[in-house]
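Q: Protein A?
A:
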Amino acid sequence: MNGSSCILVSSVGYTKELNVVYNDDHTIKYIECYMPASSSEFFSFLKDGSGIFDYSKMPEEAKKILAIRFPTEEKCSMFPLYIKGFLPQ
């Protein structure tokens, strides 16, 4: 019986709002992402009075992070991320 390869992934976070942003020399400046809001205590400073995350309260410098794959092989295992928002809890 013939078969095929399939990859099962969640559609959570799949959107056309996230982009790869390039520098003028066509190198990657950063990759936009949504972060999981898995720990409400860690993100409590971003919540407004109704318990909703107010992303505008996050400092601009805190939105820039570095993603590293473990085990790290070379520089190709690292890339800069820019947090555009948070996934639902």
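Q: Protein B?
A:
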Amino acid sequence: MKSVFVVVVLTVAVSSAAFGQTKGAEASADSLALAVVQAVLQTEFECDRALMQGDIARLEHLVYDGATRTDPSGAMTDKAQWIGTVREGRVKYVSIEREDMKVRIFGGVAVVTGIVDIKWQSNGRDNDSRNRYLRVYVHRQGRWQLVAHQATRIAQP
């Protein structure tokens, strides 16, 4: 969580420099930037909770209909395929722990990068991996939705 705070502070500092020149505008930009980053991170963690709880309705709400997911093996799935593995019980997420998260906002698009330690069960087998990941969110209809996910396994020494 410490790294999330640092990223938020850095994002706010960079964002405030990009907005307006007056102190009032900077304060307003700081508040706006912080609120946007917090909303994106909230969505990020809600996705994780929904995956671990097998909350299909919540996943349907948080993931954009045209979303794609590329796993560490390079396999690409669409929203229906990804959520279908959870719905059918073929994949059960046990734990998802994120670190070194960075959030970058580009208007109505947010890019989140970081490291994730993930444990899951697939067809009755326990699995775990440590991955670098990139997620793209889009702000539409008043909320952030996941549109793309890419994970790359970090080689173990």
